[in-house]
Amino acid sequence: MQFTNKDIVAKIKELGLVPLFTHDDVAIAKNVIEAAYRGGVRVFEFTNRRKNSFEVFVAMLDYCKKFPDLMLGIGTVMDAATTQRFIDAGAHFIISPILKLEMAEVCNRNNILWMPGCATLTEIVTARDHGAEVIKVFPGSVLGPGFVSSIMPVVPGLQLMITGGVEPNEKNLTAWFKAGAMSVGMGSQLFTKDILDNQDWKGLEESVRSILQIIKDVRK
Description:
alpha/beta; 11 helices; TIM Barrel; two-stranded parallel ribbon; seven-stranded parallel β-sheet
């Protein structure tokens, strides 16, 4: 199923959580994404960090046909050529830990949502001016909620997704959303070594559901 950029942004904003995950085992990746989906996730970032990430991602795109409302994008993309390769494969959106304007050109030309990683106000405004509707603030653990609360009054209307060190607890999530975050990205804090080692997919599903409920509660 094809999604518009508007559809994806609206769903990110609605749920406030974009999980990010990578693995070189297709079977594990499928189990993870299914557990996350059953827990309530509808926007999922697979990250391009393994030698076979492209092949695993293509397999996941095919597998996700059973979840017609799941939006699946690729993260840790660093250049224009890789951006185009994943768009051609069917990625619904592109996420990067860096700001690289050649990627904006590719995404804008293909009308694909581009979410670059930024760590300064200058980078954030540059990303916005080049078409980024949602901007990834990274690394969140270094910048802190104070960074977000300081820049929001300066550039109203920013839609920021915080990634890097976001913790799955009420205190941390409250701090980010009260500061003005639109959403958070969560990886190893959600897909823990214990869950993966024990293949505790039911536990993962419950964790996702719990985090989504915390986000919903703190944004009331």
